[in-house]
Amino acid sequence: RKHISDKNKIEKISLRSAAEMESAMKWTMDNAANLLCPTLILQAGKDNIVDKDASKEFFENIKTKDKTYKEYDGLLHELWNEKSRIQVFQDMFVWMEKHQKN
What would be the CATH architecture of the domain defined by 11-99? Predict the structure, then answer.
């Protein structure tokens, strides 16, 4: 996989950064009900970074009726770098076309 040889890949983060990310994730979950705009969530089925259950819970707590959750079975966290990324892009473009303002 390309990410293994990526020299920009971050392998370690500071304790402060981890605490800030945890705080941001908690705030996001706590405020999901305030998200009222059209929302598209693309979730990797074999994601080892983002908890699928938490992602689904966030989606269910969003109050807007115009929301879409799409899970890609067998794909890893970086959907745009997967071999089947064309399907991910197509789904994203279809959603954006549906939501563009004329």
Answer: 3-Layer(aba) Sandwich (3.40)
